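Appendix B. One record, verbatim.
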Amino acid sequence: MTAASSIARLEVTLDDVEPAVVRCLDVPLDIRLDRLHLTLQSAFGWMDGHLWEFHVREVEWGIPDPDWPDGPLDARKATLGDVIEEIEAKTFQYLYDFGDGWEHTIRITDIEDADPKASYPALIEASGRCPPEDVGGPWGYEEFLEALGDPAHERHDELREWAPENFDPNDVPLQDLTSAIADLAKAWSRKPRGKSDN
């Protein structure tokens, strides 16, 4: 990815989860949707171990399966700018882990010129810690938090053993998330090696 000329500010909310888990990101308008997926994985702290799709009105993008011809359009062949221009959508959905059903609402809150000194994508703000993977979606996460907070809960000991150490739903690992996003920006901004580069 070359230097961005325009960026979109995204407000991304993990639906049906309390306390709220929200990320604010600046991303290039020409970011491919497969890379937007990786950006969201890093921004939330997901582990990228499950299927995913973007749903924009009636259109879906993901990684097509040759055995499933009615599946999503190829996310590697569409950009965020394409979605905005062709479908005229300022709000759309990102679904991660079809079993647990983590739905994220993405709102495009602004489009502006990129700062030539900045690297993109960039994490601007974050609130709420991402739930652990495979906890059972929003409803499983609700039970998880109830069990962790109540020593008398029948699953308290089981889920304490399974949970990440000292899990706090309000404690955002901001430095880790920011570093993960910065690593993507760095990797995607590398210039191609010329023939003389070794």
